[in-house]
Amino acid sequence: MSKIKPSKGAPYARILGVGGYRPTRVVPNEVILEKIDSSDEWIRSRSGIETRHWAGPEETVAAMSVEASGKALADAGIDASRIGAVVVSTVSHFSQTPAIATEIADRLGTDKAAAFDISAGCAGFGYGLTLAKGMIVEGSAEYVLVIGVERLSDLTDLEDRATAFLFGDGAGAVVVGPSQEPAIGPTVWGSEGDKAETIKQTVSWDRFLPHLRPRSGGGTPTGDVSELPVDSEGNVKFPAITQEGQAVFRWAVFEMAKVAQQALDAAGISPDDLDVFIPHQANVRIIDSMVKTLKLPEHVTVARDIRTTGNTSAASIPLAMERLLATGDAKSGDTALVIGFGAGLVYAATVVTLP
Ligand SMILES: CC(C)(COP(=O)(O)OP(=O)(O)OC[C@H]1O[C@@H](n2cnc3c(N)ncnc32)[C@H](O)[C@@H]1OP(=O)(O)O)[C@@H](O)C(=O)NCCC(=O)NCCS
Fold first, then answer.
1. Is 311 in the pocket of ligand 1 (CB under 6 A)?
2. pLDDT digits (tens, 9 = 90+) for 166-191
3. 3-state secondary structure of 254
4. What is the pTM of this model?
5. From ligand 1's centre to the CA of 210, what distance in Å?
6. What is the DSSP track for 80-116?
């Protein structure tokens, strides 16, 4: 028989507060058109995007996260010292180690909270939320901060007409804590690594490494930099994100509606019971198609934050949630279906009670 005492957590978990940070610089489609052959009309009609935010030098991954988290903590009425874990979902923090979550936990004034980063692309918020719920119910943390944050402008090739208009920057955060009733449903999540090639960095870091890595024992890098890809001005290109737009679009439209339905079923919720739908903000046509396939009734409020935010990957769902609550389009206690999907390919869907 085991000698280990069972851990004691809360019966259930819920989102207690949400906060967002959008960089001050608003970038209209006109700016994107300086480097690609396209039109404002094409971008609006094919993606739904009118403007997006791009971070300035001071609006780092950590700085944006601290801003969004401060708002989420205030919204929840929880002091940072009570946060037991900080989970940061991002693909645009460029140091492998240490995790940016540790710096964020420190800057927020947590009391040595556990802190780590996860890489789950545009499903990252759902992955983080699932971990947070587990920690709270299992008892390893009373309150958990889940942050989705991206500076995708750093990973965007502005000369690639297939992606230049899509991405934006920002941070969204939620405080997750104990609840006496279910307020985060079962997560339906997964990965399809056979489709990994459909969204990825153009040039993997492996190709850069020989050029960047000094000879053993120090010294200057040995590689021939002329082998690296360059832009039209001859500058070495950073490994930007590329995607097979149509393939991802079809996958999202056909497969993600099924996953969303499974999350509703797992939570025991019918579309009629729903108040709000917050899908990943990748393309307004994907959102509209899911609404149709799921047969969501008229009364369900649908997040279309993509118009002014673009695709902010892990930040997209908490940012959209924050905006719906701030504008009064959704209210505290509403039942919302959230679904994220993207690079991996990965996905995560669940039903939550809004904070
Ligand atoms: C990227 C995306 C908006 C492109 O829209 P699309 O309708 O699939 O566009 P296509 O790639 O099929 O291209 C259609 C036509 O527009 C053209 N086109 C492509 N990019 C263009 C641009 N920026 N401006 C003008 N025309 C463009 C193509 O050349 C093509 O022309 P053709 O018909 O003469 O060959 C869309 O595929 C998408 O949103 N994909 C999924 C994104 C997603 O879900 N990501 C999730 C994870 S992050």
1. yes
2. 999 999 999 999 999 999 999 999 99
3. helix
4. 0.94
5. 34
6. GGGEEEEEEE-S----SSS-HHHHHHHHHT-SS-EEE
